[in-house]
Amino acid sequence: MQITPIHTRLFQEKENLPAFVAEHLPAVAEKTIVTVSSKLVCLWKGLSVPYESRAQKEALIRQESDAALQTPLAWLTIKSGMIMTNAGIDESNADGKLLLLPTDCYACAAELRGELQKKWNVKNLGVIITDSMILPLRAGIIGAAVAYAGFKGVKDLRGKPDIFGKKLEVTLVNAADALAAACALTMGEAAEQCPLCRVEQAPVEFTDKTDPDEIKYPPENDLYTPLLKAVKLVK
């Protein structure tokens, strides 16, 4: 698998994102995946508000969350079936604004994929919208997929044998977040100005129909549900 971060000019709010991506990536091969920073998608859709105060930001976080819990560093929130900080609201690299995630990031990923398929004349194309995530009891942030299109984001290995022939019972591989994390490491978080990344030869299955529910794990079976219930983030 080959991962290539793409350095770009600054993207302007409400600019045409498919055209911007094609400007910096004039062509791609079949079975390419392109990762796009969620900041670009927020700006593309005009989802920004001027930063006024901490109280204003906290009110927006609560408004944009399905559930929210204040912690010493940030708000721990649930939005669109994902645990994330601050409901995905970002003020880094935002030039004095607060950037809000779209209501339906998967629709944005599908729209961007469709436009890029036309521009590049390719059939098998994946798109991932990336954002930052913090893992429990781990220092630092990693990339995660807030949405994707064009490939299966989860590999189901249940029933397959391990190297000693024992059948796997519960193993699912989260390909979408794994790719987002790998790309985010090369895209950077500060002044690198690499909000795009090209992935070639990724070990995924390409498809025209993406199921957003495949990557959502049922709360009743989730490892962290007892902890979330204990802090009353989940009822």
Description:
Helix 1 packs across helix 4. The protein has helices at residues 17-24, 38-44, 54-64, 105-120, 175-187, 225-230; strands at 2-6, 32-37, 48-50, 67-70, 75-79, 82-85, 97-99, 125-134, 141-149, 154-156, 172-174, 196-200. It has 6 helices and 12 strands. The protein has a single domain (2-230), classed as 60s Ribosomal Protein L30, Chain: A (2-Layer Sandwich), CATH 3.30.1330.100. Strand 4 and strand 5 form a beta hairpin. The strands form 4 sheets. It has a 5-stranded mixed β-sheet with strand order 1-12-2-8-9. A 3-stranded antiparallel β-sheet has the order 4-5-6, with helices on one face. The chain has a two-stranded antiparallel sheet with strand order 3-7. By secondary structure, the chain is an alpha+beta fold. It is globular and about 50 Å long.
Q: Report Rg.
A: 18 Å
Distance between the amino and carboxyl termini: 41 Å
**CATH superfamily assignment?**
CofE-like
Spans of at least 5 consecutive residues with low confidence: none
Average of per-residue pLDDT values: 94
Structural class: alpha+beta
> How much helicity do the residues have?
25-40%
The count of helical stretches stands at 6
- Record the strand order, biggest sheet: 1-12-2-8-9
CATH architecture: 2-Layer Sandwich
The biggest beta sheet is recorded as: 5 strands, mixed
Q: Which outline best applies? A: globular
Strand content: 25-35%
CATH topology, which one? Answer: 60s Ribosomal Protein L30, Chain: A
Number of domains: 1
Could you tell me the number of beta strands? 12
Name the helix and strand elements from N-terminus to C-terminus, one letter apiece: EHEHEHEEEEHEEEEHEH
